[in-house]
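Researcher: Structure for this, please.
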Amino acid sequence: MVSLVSLSCLVCGVALAVLSLHRPEQAVSLERWSGICLVAGLGLLGFALRGGR
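Model: Predicted structure, token format:
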């Protein structure tokens, strides 16, 4: 379950990064949320991998 949430956070982070390229007026906000989603996704993925052992 945690791995699914982490992968969705990673996908959401990448989607927000791509969206920031198409909306330059909102790029700062979108890039900030993209970074937050990517960090959260990587953290959750590490937690899921560690918990799976």
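Researcher: Any notable elements?
Model: The mean pLDDT is 92. The two ends are 15 Å apart (CA to CA).
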